[in-house]
């Protein structure tokens, strides 16, 4: 199979941006998607705002309908003790942990406790910033550069090993490993684009 060379012109089409975004979902480490467990993640941040404004509706979107009653009851119990400096911090943490745990359950992912602020990966922080500042162009430009660099590195490794793959079994195995890594990355992108349902399960 002949692999076409990737030129160094900056991809400008919206399609490339979309592909790059989904590819990032595949090539980034899996723990990236656990940013909802973090204190600076969107679930906890909206939960704190909901408690401050006494508005449970702000957080119901983060859990499945079957968990709404549990969250409402716990929310009501928590805000009831807002003026108690000893009890409230304990109830607040319990509420946050319960909300995040149920959200993760809806994703089909395990919950291992709340992570400290600052533990969210840089790329995910950038996606949240883009949403908050309504600036997708800056984010896509940086993401595009990252995606191009990663794909180019994988391609160049395969291309180099392709020239020597039959010199020895060891070289052949190096080529196969690089080829599998490269093609599976591209294939995974296609699968995500074809089968993503956009729901909570889209995280994984």
List the helices and strands and how they pair.
Layout: H1 14-27, H2 42-53, H3 57-60, H4 68-80, H5 88-107, H6 122-133, H7 136-162, H8 169-195
Explain how this protein is built.
The chain has 204 residues and is mainly alpha-helical. The protein is built from 8 helices and no strands. α2 crosses α5. It starts with 13 loop residues before the first helix and ends in a 9-residue tail after the last helix.
Helicity level: 55-70%
Low-confidence stretches: 1-15, 22-33
| Major β-sheet annotation | none
The total beta strand count reads: 0
Rg calc: 22 Å
* Shape assignment: elongated
Number of helices: 8
Short précis:
The protein has 204 residues and is mainly α.
């Amino acid at each position: 199979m002949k692999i076409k060379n990737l030129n160094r012109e900056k991809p400008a089409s919206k399609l490339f941006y979309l592909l790059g975004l989904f590819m990032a979902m595949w090539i980034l480490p899996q723990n990236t998607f656990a940013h909802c467990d973090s204190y600076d993640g969107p679930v906890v941040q909206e939960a704190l705002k909901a408690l401050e404004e006494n508005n449970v509706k702000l957080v119901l979107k983060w859990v499945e309908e079957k968990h709404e009653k549990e969250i409402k009851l716990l929310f009501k119990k928590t805000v009831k003790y807002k003026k108690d400096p000893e009890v409230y911090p304990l109830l607040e943490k319990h509420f946050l942990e319960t909300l995040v745990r149920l959200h993760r359950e809806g994703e089909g992912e395990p919950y291992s406790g709340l992570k400290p602020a600052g533990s969210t990966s840089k790329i995910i922080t950038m996606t949240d910033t883009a949403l908050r500042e309504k600036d997708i162009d800056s984010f896509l430009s940086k993401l595009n550069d990252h995606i191009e660099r990663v794909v180019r590195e994988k391609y160049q490794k395969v291309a180099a090993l392709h020239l020597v793959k039959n010199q020895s079994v060891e070289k052949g195995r190096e080529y196969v490993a690089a080829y599998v890594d490269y093609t599976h990355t591209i294939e995974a992108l296609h699968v995500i684009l074809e089968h993503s349902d956009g729901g909570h399960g889209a995280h994984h």
